[in-house]
Design brief:
The structure is a single chain. It contains 2 helices and 6 strands. With 143 residues, the chain is of the alpha+beta class. It has one domain: Roll (Thiol Ester Dehydrase, Chain A). A hairpin with a 5-residue loop joins strand 5 and strand 6. The longest helix is centred in the middle third of the chain and has 17 residues. The protein is globular.
């Protein structure tokens, strides 16, 4: 897989040709789309992701936001490259309930040789923004 560009790697995972990372293998992902510098993931949280208040746990939402943001950056990288999150700022606007189709959309805002910035949001079917984040990542070259 080291000979694949970031776009080829993310696209292959989304199509099912390449195995998802372990952290995503049990997530309720139903679809998505990848473009250079953009990544969209469709999912529906289940009761397994609930907190004590019976809403979707913020850590689960933050993980989804981090995943789509770093993936958007990764689509712009060449072979033998990777991305590591340095900072993740997450904001929640509404409680997120289970069993509702959701979409996480991320855009790479700026990517250089050593650092990348991206932003993402999670929306419901009414396009209401439920949560958003901004991410700063270190670019790993020659992995």
């Amino acid at each position: 897989m080291n000979n694949l560009t970031g776009f080829q790697l993310i696209d292959g995972m989304l199509k099912g040709d390449i195995a998802l990372p372990n952290i995503l293998s049990n997530f309720p992902i139903s679809g998505g789309n990848v473009e250079k510098g953009k990544f969209k993931l469709e999912f529906e949280a289940t009761e397994q992701q609930l907190n004590l208040q019976s809403t979707v746990h913020g850590g689960f939402i933050a993980t989804i936001l981090d995943t789509v943001s770093t993936s958007a950056i990764h689509t712009l990288l060449g072979p033998n490259s990777g991305v590591v999150t340095l900072s993740l700022k997450t904001e929640f606007f509404h409680p997120i309930l289970p069993n509702i189709p959701l979409t996480a959309v991320a855009v790479a805002d700026s990517v250089s040789r050593t650092i990348g910035f991206a932003s993402a949001e999670i929306v419901d079917q009414k396009q209401r923004v439920l949560a958003r984040c901004s991410v700063t990542c270190s670019i790993l070259l020659g992995r």
